[in-house]
Amino acid sequence: MSETVTLRQLSGMPDQPAPLSQTALIIVDAQNTYRSGPLELNGVEPALDECARLLARARALAIPVIHIQHDAGPGSPYDIRSDIGAIADKVAPRDGEPIVVKHYPNAFVGTELDARLKALGVTRVVIAGFMTHMCINSTTRGAFSLGYQVCVPAAATATRALPAPDGSVIDAPTVQRVALAALADLFAVVVADSEAIPD
Known about the structure:
Layout: H1 7-11, E1 24-28, H2 44-61, E2 65-70, E3 99-102, H3 113-119, E4 124-130, H4 132-145, E5 149-153, E6 157-158, E7 162-163, E8 169-170, H5 172-186, E9 189-191
Parallel strand pairs: 1-2, 1-4, 2-3, 4-5, 4-6, 5-9
Antiparallel strand pairs: 7-8
């Protein structure tokens, strides 16, 4: 049986992350809706802590930081006018750090995200946040399709269990592993955690 390889390997694409100092950090949907209730994610607090460590390094290096916030309207679990849709206090934006509000899983669709990055001359991004199988997946693929080099630190992401088409339930750790493996096949350099990204 032949060795299992990724499309990145077959294509000769980079398999190591760019230094953090040469990137922009995009934190996707680090919102309170994922911390409790029906959308509480498996391992969300440790993932938020990892996002906070990454954010602190980004600020120390003075690289661009962009916060993404999903808005699904008043009364929804993503209502940015209420506490449930607010960005978690652990990674709250500071003055000067833009918030890009989105309405689709891919943060590049219908937003100014691409224009902001291009205006900054950014070609490499680190994408962290939630949910791994949904908005991290969609935004990473969107970034790749627009020509960005992407790194995803696994420990700074999290997701939840999903119902399978056959009526069974796919547990959250499996959804997480498969979502990250799919991204690592082509769309991003996926590393274990932020420590794997050099300054």
